[in-house]
């Protein structure tokens, strides 16, 4: 009898503890949903809105001194928006840049965000350096040495060959993702200016994989890198656990999921940037309620020797 009473008292304490835990869980869930899931992924926001308006860590952690999801290791890095440091870009006017990947990490390319303000203008890349720009927010005007201009809006991109005179201008505000590398030239081959938009690129076959793939540059020999746009529906993941000689710079444009890099597993979301050195084991699974879209630099078409 005594045993039974003791047992039932313990049981009822357990029940009430579990209930109160449940209440906490429910209310925390309510807060998270309201701020980070429903708002951010609502269809009423412009394309790639999350990249320039990221969730700065879980809302209850963003004011915690010293907290960041950013990681820098020998063979990979995750650079999350709360770690971005913007400063004037040499040669550009009224433009702030955050260099997220540079050769100091081991890469042979740079990847940076350029925030162009009122009456801003780009500078030229160094000698023999090719440039790729992708518009994340706003509108820029690209003019080449023939004096011919293109208006580039969100989702548009341009490739500028090495030593190709051009300028990007912006009257209001625009945010660009920019990739640059020293061109690995091939005899009898030259690259050309390319201006297009992601939505106009055809979907490509991805044997053995479920994600949707678009390539923004030609796959022909002159081009020593390509930029892939990869889309995953929630729950979809890479089949191949890739390990390869190519290096990657990745910018998550939409959605959230888990990125595996080496032996580390990272929760990631729109706005996050990733550096992958050659041969780092890499794998992604999309989670959340909306598709993941990311943009990926990959060096191609050159002998690794
Ligand atoms: C300048 O841009 C126009 C339009 O895209 C293109 O036809 C022309 O070839 C470009 N000039 C050069 C020198 O590439």
From TrEMBL:
InterPro entries: Cupin_2, RmlC-like_jellyroll, RmlC_Cupin_sf, UGHY, UGlyAH_cupin_C, UGlyAH_cupin_N. It comes from the Eukaryota. The keyword Signal applies. Keywords: Signal. The keyword Signal applies. CDD domains: cupin_UGlyAH_C, cupin_UGlyAH_N. Residues 1-27 form the signal peptide. GO terms for molecular function: ureidoglycine aminohydrolase activity. Residues 229-295 form the Cupin type-2 domain. This is Cupin type-2 domain-containing protein.
């Amino acid at each position: 009898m005594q045993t039974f009473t003791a047992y039932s008292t313990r049981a009822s304490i357990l029940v009430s503890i579990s209930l109160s835990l449940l209440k906490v869980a429910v209310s925390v869930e309510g807060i998270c949903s309201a701020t980070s899931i429903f708002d951010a992924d609502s269809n009423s926001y412009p394309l790639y809105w999350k990249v320039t308006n990221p969730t700065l860590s879980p809302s209850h952690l963003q004011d915690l001194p010293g907290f960041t999801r950013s990681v820098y290791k020998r063979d990979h890095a995750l650079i999350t928006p709360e770690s971005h440091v913007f400063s004037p870009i040499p040669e550009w006017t009224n433009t702030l840049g955050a260099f997220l990947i540079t050769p100091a990490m081991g890469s042979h390319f740079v990847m940076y965000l350029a925030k162009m303000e009122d009456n801003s203008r780009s500078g030229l890349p160094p000698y023999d350096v090719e440039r790729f720009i992708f518009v994340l927010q706003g509108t820029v005007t690209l003019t080449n040495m023939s004096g011919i201009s293109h208006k580039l809006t969100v989702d548009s991109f341009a490739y500028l060959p090495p030593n190709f005179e051009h300028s990007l201008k912006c009257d209001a505000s625009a945010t660009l993702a920019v990739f640059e590398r020293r061109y690995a030239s091939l005899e009898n081959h030259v690259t050309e200016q390319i201006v297009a938009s992601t939505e106009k690129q055809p979907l490509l076959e991805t044997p053995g994989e479920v994600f949707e793939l678009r390539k923004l540059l030609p796959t022909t020999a002159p081009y020593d890198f390509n930029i892939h746009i990869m889309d995953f529906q929630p729950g979809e993941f890479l089949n191949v656990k890739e390990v390869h000689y190519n290096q990657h710079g990745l910018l998550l444009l939409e959605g959230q999921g888990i990125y595996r890099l080496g032996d580390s597993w990272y929760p990631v979301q729109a706005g996050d940037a990733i550096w992958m050195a050659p041969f780092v084991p890499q794998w992604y699974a999309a989670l959340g309620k909306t598709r993941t879209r990311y943009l990926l630099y990959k060096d191609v078409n050159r002998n690794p020797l």
